[in-house]
UniProtKB/TrEMBL annotation:
Residue numbers marked as site, Important for beta-aspartyl-AMP intermediate formation: D356
Entry's EC annotation: 6.3.5.4
Biological processes per GO annotation: asparagine biosynthetic process
Catalysed reactions, as listed in the record: L-aspartate + L-glutamine + ATP + H2O = L-asparagine + L-glutamate + AMP + diphosphate + H(+)
Annotated positions binding L-glutamine: D94
The protein's annotated pathway: Amino-acid biosynthesis; L-asparagine biosynthesis; L-asparagine from L-aspartate (L-Gln route): step 1/1
Name recorded for this polypeptide: asparagine synthase (glutamine-hydrolyzing)
Amino acid sequence: MCGIYLTNFSCKEEQVRKKLNSISFRGPDNLQINKVKEIILGHLRLAILDLDKRSNQPYSFEQFHIVFNGEIYNFKDIREELISCGFSFETTSDTEVLIKGYAYWGKEFVSRLNGMFAFAIYDEVKGEIFCARDRLGVKPFFYYWKDGAYEICSQLRPLVNKNLQISKEAVSIYLDCGYIPSPLTIFEDVFKLQPGHTLSIDLNNKTKKIEKYWDLKEVETTTLTYGEAKEQLHALIINAVKIRMQADVPLGSFLSGGIDSALVSAIAAKHSSVPINTFTIAFEDPKYDESKIAQQYASIIGSNHKETLCNPEQILQMLKDFTKVYDEPFADSSALPSLLLNKITKDDVTVALSGDGGDESFIGYWHLMLVDKFKKVAGIPFTIRKALSKIPYHIILGTRPETLKGFLSSKDENELIVKIFTSFDSLNLKKDYTWVDKYYPQFRKLSKEPLQRAADFNIKLWLENDSNVKVDRASMAFSVESRSPFLDYRIIEFARTLPISYRFKNGVTKRIIRDILKEYIPEEVFTQPKKGFAIPLNAWIRGELKDDILSKLNDAFLHSVPNLDVLKFKKQLGEHLENKYDYSFSIWKLYILALWCEEFNISF
């Protein structure tokens, strides 16, 4: 885990150092800046493998110079292959394997990598820069590009300058989602390299080329029996856990009440020569507390378990520095307890395994169940459903009117899927979901099965742009490296070949994962109700945060936000404060946007 930087700007070393220091939490072990010809390379290192300074970056080999963030989990296999091709190695790091692999195989080398990575390699002889980002976007990659001038970095903050213009398109999508998906950022001319893509820059012609090397594809459903599929998946997960346990620093595992982190921790414990360290947060409010279940898991797998009781004051304290870490508007409130969890974890370990990614591939989220339920109403003519959606059932059912209306008025499953991931509740004055077809056209075409399409869209939109962002920034804020075996692309590819019934059947989510977990933990333990990693945001908005929210979300600010339906938002805010409905996500989106504008001294 590190921070990378590369530019052809004419900068003094002090300027680059200042930029890197603004995200120094990404790599506190070493800061290094090199200039090769007109190119400046900078790197922040969090040492995980080969702690010796010989593995510091920028790292050079022949005419190649690299800045690299992440981990290549299969680097030992690639290293052996390169040795058989005549290469020798001076370090035991994956950085040296990466640069020599590129020197030997060229751009195609990226498809051989299994890991989480974002890197840039400068070839000073050919005058080329080659960059790549991992398949699922676990590691971030930002770049500025305008008329051949470019600047690359692991986070947005070092790229911000007074000449940048706000992207109104990005703001509108943020009002839909609560985050800004790749390739966009909040600024014009600054972009995210999309997951599974490479960026090639020709310094001689001042041109760039973006190419896709991996994506979700249409697949044939496997003919494996359930038992055979379970056995193969189990072996894949074991391997994914084991290769993520490679480290020259202390390693542990996050452990919640969920089955994904339980399975990862159980496998890690079984394959570790010493008891592993596990970490969980306990909440005073039983509606959010999973610590008792996590403690049961820990006792069964024999881990050294650390439980930290957190109170609202501790979590709200994290809000003070939220926009320093999440340097682009980001409204996932579970980022706050994630920050706290990583803070306590850092006291004991530098690397932590996690269960992130299991819900996406194995249909674990409740909102995906809406797609399954839609089958029951899809036979009703659309005109009738649309008319029914206007009847105020929500008053009787106690749910938000937008949710029921959005469900009944969806033309088909694809429209429902899009609404699910915008919370049925766009805050845009002019509602326009054409951005989905513009940036994510493939999700409608990859499967005939609606639940699989929903899972695919979940991976491409939410996992890559929300979950992975949350985990990367929260862990990096405290210089912790988070590794998730369920984000191994081999598991995701395999899961997509499984029949839906192997993953979801008779209302049981993640069926095949549950059956694997039975081999480690008794079923009666892990079938206890899951609470989710959340905070009581609903109540906080009416309580501890109310005054600051009302102050920040004043009329002047609200009317300045591009395309915001101010009247709709103010109505939602009022109904939330009166405790009629829960509009906490809508309010949180605008509140975080206001905090971000304040942090960067930006007005729309």
